[in-house]
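Convert to structure. Protein one:
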Amino acid sequence: MKFLDNGSFWPSWPWYELGISLRIQYRDEEKDQPNGHAIMSYTGFLVIGLSVVAMALLGAFTIAYAERQEAYRLGPNDVIQVQVFGEDDLSVERTVDGNGTITFPLLGTLSVGGRTVQDFQDELTAHLRAGYIRNPKVTVFIVRHRNFFVNGEVRKPGGFEYREGMTVQKALALAEGFTEKADRSEVKITRQQGGSTQTTLVALDELVLPNDLIMVPQAPKLYVNGEVRRPGDYMYEKGLTVHKAITMAGGFTEKAAESRTKVLRVINGQEVTISVKLDDLIHPNDIIVVPQRFF
């Protein structure tokens, strides 16, 4: 900040490039203070500064929104709003049909599928300029995105409206979360890409796209039979040991032959019997059998 000879000062940062020139007067309220400390009135300067910051933030938001719209491509069931300045009859709301088209006054059927909002806006402007309106000012924006879908072991499966920034975790929250039978480590997305369908394992923070199908499978089970207190089937977990599985089943009975515990497991389509120790790992769909002691 640079003080001038007449008792005013200029900001030293380059806001003058914006055409802002500020001269803030100050007055020496207490002449007896050391070095003539000044009390300055800078309310106007602060207001203008905050206005400039707000304008910068608004500009950044507008750019980010435009970039998101640029990345999104229109498709069936998107609802779009078209506004033509000064032409109320041409300002309409349309739902993209299954063929990726809409109908528009004067122009009839228009293809929008696979285009970004900006692409379609530019094309529509060109069509209207070619013989209908001298200098059309066209704005296109999305009123409602098409759905994505969540199926499987969630509490409320179904279709949900896509929103910018939608993640797998947010999508599952819309479906009211996992059921108690869900395999949370095996969530997958089926997606149409380039005319083919791809299914991939996804993390909860991955982004969702319109028409995605999020599938939550049921967790595999294991079975505990024989001399345990609560024989039956239980949800499999990675890292599960024989000991933990038996604990889930209430533990051994007093008649159990613990050292002769076995696992029935399907390997290459054949069921085999395996002698196991309590710290051995269990596989999905294993059957743990605890025999009875002979005496």
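Protein two, convert as well:
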Amino acid sequence: MLLTTFRKTRTQTAILTLLATSVATAPAVFADNRPSTAPAIEELDKAYLFNASQLNRAGQEATTHVDRELNQLDSQGIEDLARTVLGETALSDQELDWHASSARQDNTFGVKEVLRTEQILSETEGNIRALTTRLDKSPMVENPQWVWNSVGGVKARIKILYCSPREYIALFGTQLPQEGFSGLYSGMDVWDIILTGAMYSNGSSSKQAFPLLYKPGNISLLKRGQSRYYNMDRLTYMIDYGRGSISKAFWQGVVAPYLVNQDTQSLMEQLKKCGASYIKNFFE
């Protein structure tokens, strides 16, 4: 893997309303190709509650535990697990039989692979919540829900876990391949911590034109004022962590998508849950 650090930084100013902080920003990914073992740029900044390396550990611990548990199941155990999970959906008996039995096969989109991804996301969320409790950090979003996010041509799922005036944490990703524009954020830096799948990105300049590859455990950084074009494989998910003036991403992350897709449910979930988290964390 080619290692490239993109150092160009540019600051701009913009002012939005306090409501802007209830943002569910689209992940602005892939501007720093540091391997997961490299020191994170923000590690020593005590002005913030979280850091990317800390969150990466939460995700990697979840992945290790999930893989260990799944590897102990035989094919019948995987099928039974699939039936338990899929039984909560509105599938017919015939559809349930087909999806559950496909868990026995190493096919392109097996149920085992989907179950693994969802379980990693669930346990990663639990680890992050445990982290905030252990470190006496600020309140997380209560009862967060998965909703749609559509920014820069990317149609994906997002779940907001934490929101304050200066930081946010979300789970973000897609079941199916997606690609689009990262967005350009003038007031914040964004770290994307890869949990599953694979992602590629490139910049517009000749020096940044070679696509960079990020795999689970890698951390990418998009500095404020930068932008990238990126591609996500199927079942690619990440922890999306932003720092800075979160409100400045409000238009791109919440308002603009709603104007395009009229998804009131996703809009209200983000406004309601992030707004409540923001107010609780306002004085942190």
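Residues 111-134 form the longest helix (24 residues). Residues 181 and 229 are 5 Å apart (CA to CA).
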